[in-house]
Fold these 2 entries.
Entry 1:
Amino acid sequence: MTATLDLWPIGNCQVSALVDRAGRFSWGCVPRVDGDPTFCSLLDDSPRGGEGARGFWEIDLEGSTSTAQRYLRNTPILVTRHADDDGNAIEVIDFCPRFSRHGRTFRPVAFVRIVRPVAGSPRIRVKLRPARDWGKADAGRTRGSNHIRYLLDEITLRLTTTAPVGWVEDERLFRVEHSLHFFLGPDESFEGDISETVDSMLDRAIAEWRQWVRGLATPVEWQEAVIRAAITLKLCQHEETGAIVAALTTSIPEHAGSQRNWDYRFCWIRDAYYTVQALNRLGALIRWNSHGLSRIQHALQGRTAEFAVADSDNPVGVKAADVIARQTDECRMDTTARHELGFLNRTLYRLYCGFDIALDALLQAARRLITDANDLQLTIGRYFAHQR
């Protein structure tokens, strides 16, 4: 395939995926954004969808000649419209569920796709080829009556769908006569009606994200761009621990020909600081607490891990690192997102991550200035009163 970095992120602060301009999942890791990439075709030099290609999920319209994409307003929920020259068209809605349920945030290790016929009699082909061991091997598969299980190294994923399971497994063309729902998530039985449940997840995810955006203090100008940037930064947060990754990808060079192709799926303290500061300025305040941090980067769960990167070239011809060793201290950054305002609020400018930016000194100086100003005001008031 010819990889591109023109990508659309979706996610739920637990997992994420990058969707390319063809509506194809080309990057996504489980069970967290720093896990083994199940979708890794972004770093694959095999022909798109051809023999030996793996690590992607595509839903192709037969004879497609045009593709248009957009986000639903104020959400990271992507809508891709495919059309052909004969008047056939479909829409594919991609998202990761995230909403409040039973007093807690529901954010499963799951990816959801909904295919809706828009015009004509469209025929589609679904190709779901998860990879394991950094793209070196296909995931094993087993099949049930209404699902397909994909056996990965760290987790087993189950695709539950209203589409014909056999045709999905065999990657056959079939006609779309009504909405089709695909739920790729934990290896658990899907409770309830698939269509109704997935549609409900979509509605609740839309409401949850728009409620979060509603609390942002966005500027009058450039609101759409600022909101989109804020949502993208939010997707870099691992809500379970509060850690914020520098980026959702790894082994992507900084520019063509560059050898700087680091793994940015760490919580780099510097990058996390700027992310927190940016979100705080918008009113999405994040309170950080940590325990004994001493390194400049930390894994999301604070574990030590070592893994090998697939021996393939990335999109711009720079060889990915062969082995990346992660040796980190315990890092659990418990966060609380609150909507409140305050002058020199302690949550705004200090990261409790083993260093201090002298906020206490700044606060003490501000208090002294306020005290001195009050004393000066009283002195001036007494002076003029005496003059009268």
Entry 2:
Amino acid sequence: MLHESRAERHLRSFKRRLPGRGVSIACLVTMAALARMRSLSAETAGPADSPWFERCLVGMEVGPTGAQFGHSDKDDARYAARFDGAEIVRRCVAASSEYVVIWARDGDYAYYDSEVALKCPGLGSRDVLRQTVEEARKHRLPVIAYCVV
């Protein structure tokens, strides 16, 4: 495409990487904004040998929703049953995110194997924080564990 913008190239690339998955308008708008922020990041980023937090501008915060409002049912195994740290990282990488903020604990639950906080019932034996860190390591993607205290 002759006069395709960087955002348009990024969106086309994103669609190619996720074949068979529907891409909503909201997702496309988000990807366009992310592409623009990426271009700004490249213009203002520090040297490659600087710490990640000085050179990374575009990141994603990901976590389940609902429990932070105190309306969760500790016996509902459906809540966060599909919360998958490795899949989150793969999608962040596909979206060119430079780091990920993963919810490790909200007002009600821990999303990792905690010795103190109640673990989210939908996780079973899974540890979302561990999944996230292990997959992110493969992509050299910095991870911030977000915890509500």
